[in-house]
From TrEMBL:
Catalytic activity: 4,4-dimethyl-8,14-cholestadien-3beta-ol + NADPH + H(+) = 4,4-dimethyl-5alpha-cholest-8-en-3beta-ol + NADP(+); 5alpha-cholest-8,14-dien-3beta-ol + NADPH + H(+) = 5alpha-cholest-8-en-3beta-ol + NADP(+); 4,4-dimethyl-5alpha-cholesta-8,24-dien-3beta-ol + NADP(+) = 4,4-dimethyl-5alpha-cholesta-8,14,24-trien-3beta-ol + NADPH + H(+)
Transmembrane intervals: 95-115, 135-157, 178-196, 208-228, 335-359, 365-384, 405-426, 446-465
Pathway: Steroid biosynthesis; cholesterol biosynthesis
Similarity remark: Belongs to the ERG4/ERG24 family.
Record keyword S-adenosyl-L-methionine present: no
Gene Ontology molecular function: Delta14-sterol reductase activity; DNA binding
Keywords, in A-Z order: Cholesterol biosynthesis, Cholesterol metabolism, Cytoplasm, DNA-binding, Endoplasmic reticulum, Lipid biosynthesis, Lipid metabolism, Membrane, Nucleus, Oxidoreductase, Phosphoprotein, Receptor, Steroid biosynthesis, Steroid metabolism, Sterol biosynthesis, Sterol metabolism, Transmembrane, Transmembrane helix
UniProt organism field: Gouania willdenowi
Protein name: Delta(14)-sterol reductase LBR
Class in the EC hierarchy, top level: oxidoreductase
SMART domains named in the record: TUDOR (SM00333)
Start-end of Basic residues biased regions: 64-77
Annotated spans, Disordered: 58-89
Entry superkingdom: Eukaryota
Length: 498
């Protein structure tokens, strides 16, 4: 056996995988079987490196001093060592951010205006633009602020469990008040009382655009606040992806991983409360509007299905609120415009488009068609729930007795990867279940227009992109163990297809 060149605890220069950049790392150990060193970077990333990817610090520094930044502080897009490539990739990253900052709000505006048309066919696109002053309404803004404050009050109530998040780079675990289900129940009660007292929910349908504009303004203010807040954050509190140094890009992606006002976690709150619960309230308001507009005694079958399916999705998310703590957004993404806008505008005002569409575009369903759609929803829900629960239980306690018969692959980080159960079928079984459910949400709206299929199309793009992002992230984290997992489980989302 060759002698071990670098000793445990020694500071050396480690090559960042896939690049020719070297950073200062600490040697944690040597595995004689794979002949690789486990090293830890300054930002807490642990990787396995071969000897040829390591250089002694003394020899290296004399040659190049300037390359010793930790990867966490690297400019994004700087994987290539060449200056010109770095410059141009930073420029395109910034351009991309400007594009999304303009495109996303414009897209929501387009969808709402298009959905409002009597015939929302693409041949009638683009819809006429409303006047600027008709977009702003004090009352709508007031309602949105009230809604968020109400949800924030429910969130801080000392009711429900205090759950621990995944360990941060510092090893610290943040605490989260997981009382989302309670918040939904109290909100449902408050809405029931309001309707009983004569509050007219058709207001939501009639002022849908103004409410969306108000939520958009709040998301912009919130993103600005978070960007400012991140200026006081230390490097360990910053997300790995949102610190390129380019203002537009960092504003969009979010610099700080877990911005908090005392114990109030802005990312967790926004992702799980105002938008998600607002989605159910808006759907319900659409059902009420449909009844009023068409003089119905009850909402149409399609409207009931869309309402119940999406309500089940939100109920499930809030019931298993703790599981969000092991998702990519909570563990890795910064909180910036993308998530603030996504949570406060995108979710409540575009995920409700099917219900919004059905108000003026009824689609009668035969009982067998309705039964088939319900069955599809249940299959999707089963796969989604089982796979998310398997992963969450495993991440919380890998030796949980419920998982004793599961096969796993160990990784250098100490975490293992599940290779049986749903995670042995495809690499993202939770996405598969989610996509089947998305299909069941669009089917009740029929095939006359593409608008109610928008969610399905968007969701395929989102999840395919998320999957490849997660793949690179896992490859970075787990190295060869991830390759082994990919060989064992060759399909990404759909068995034998993709
Ligand atoms: N309705 C909507 O708009 C959206 C819904 N979603 C849903 O949210 C849920 C969460 O999604 P998301 O955060 O994207 O991804 P996942 O919940 O799938 O989390 C991915 C992480 O899981 C861990 N992991 C991957 N493979 C394995 C394995 N074999 N064994 C154990 N752990 C593994 C890795 O993290 P690590 O190893 O570090 O623990 C990986 O980074 C999904 O159900 C998705 O469908 C997502 C986006 C939008
Ligand atoms: C604006 C962009 C184009 C896209 C923004 C994406 C966000 C809207 C989504 C990113 C991950 C999400 C999750 C849920 C809602 C949508 C966002 C915020 C989720 C809370 C929905 C309910 C589920 O049960 C869940 C698993 C808890 C979801 C977690 C991810």
């Amino acid at each position: 056996m060759p002698p071990v060149k670098y000793q445990r605890g020694e500071m050396v220069m480690g090559r960042w995988p896939g690049s020719s950049l070297y950073y200062e790392v600490k040697v944690l150990g040597f595995d004689s079987k794979s002949e690789s060193y486990t090293v830890i970077y300054k930002d807490g990333t642990e990787l396995e490196l071969m000897e040829q990817d390591i250089k002694s610090t003394a020899g290296f520094l004399s040659r190049s001093r300037s390359r010793s930044r930790s990867p966490g502080r690297r400019r994004s897009g700087s994987r290539s060592p060449s200056r010109t490539t770095r410059g141009s990739s930073r420029k395109s990253t910034a351009l991309g951010a400007y594009f999304w900052l303009l495109f996303l709000p414009a897209w929501v505006l387009f969808m709402i205006l298009q959905g409002d048309l009597e015939d929302p066919s693409l041949v009638n696109a683009p819809p006429p633009l409303p006047s600027l002053d008709s977009l702003w309404d004090y009352q709508s803004f007031g309602f949105v602020v009230l809604w968020i404050v109400f949800q924030a009050l429910l969130y801080i109530l000392p009711v429900g469990k205090l759950s621990e998040g995944m360990p941060l780079r510092t090893g610290e675990r943040l605490k989260y008040r997981t009382n989302g289900f309670f918040a939904l129940m109290v909100t449902a009660l408050a809405v029931a009382i309001a309707v009983h007292e004569g509050v007219d929910l058709t207001y939501v349908y009639n002022n849908f655009l103004q409410l969306a504009v108000a939520a958009f303004l709040i998301s912009v203010l919130l993103s600005c606040y978070c960007y400012g807040h991140s200026r006081n954050a230390n490097s360990e509190q910053l997300a790995l992806g949102g610190n390129s140094g380019n203002v537009a890009y960092d504003f969009f992606k979010g610099r700080e991983l877990n911005p908090r006002i005392k114990n109030f976690d802005l990312k967790f709150f926004c992702e799980m409360r105002p938008g998600l619960i607002g989605w159910c309230l808006i759907n319900f308001a659409m059902a009420v509007t449909e009844m009023k507009l068409h003089n119905l005694d009850s909402p149409s079958c399609s409207m009931i299905l869309v309402n119940l399916f999406q309500l089940l999705y939100v109920l499930d998310g809030l019931w298993n609120e703790e599981a969000i703590l092991t998702t990519m957004d909570l563990m890795h993404d910064g909180f910036g415009f993308m998530l603030a806008f996504g949570d406060l505008v995108w979710v409540p005002f575009t995920y409700t488009l099917q219900a919004f569409y059905l108000v003026n575009h009824p689609n009668p369903l035969s009982p067998p068609a309705a039964a088939a759609i319900v069955l599809l929803k249940l299959i999707g829900f089963y796969i989604f729930r089982k796979s998310n629960s398997e992963k969450n239980t495993f991440r919380k306690n890998p030796s949980d007795s419920k998982l004793s018969c599961m096969r796993t692959i160990p990784t250098a980080t100490g975490k293992s990867l599940l290779t049986s159960g749903w995670w042995g079928v495809v690499r993202h079984p939770n996405y598969l279940g989610d996509l089947i459910m998305a299909l069941s949400w669009s089917l009740p709206c029929g095939f006359s227009h593409i608008l109610p299929w928008y969610y399905m199309i968007y969701f395929i793009i989102l999840l395919v992109h998320r999957e490849s992002r997660d793949m690179s992230e896992c490859k970075r984290k787990y190295g060869s163990a991830w390759d082994e997992y990919c060989q064992t489980v060759p399909y990404r989302i759909i068995p034998w297809v993709y």
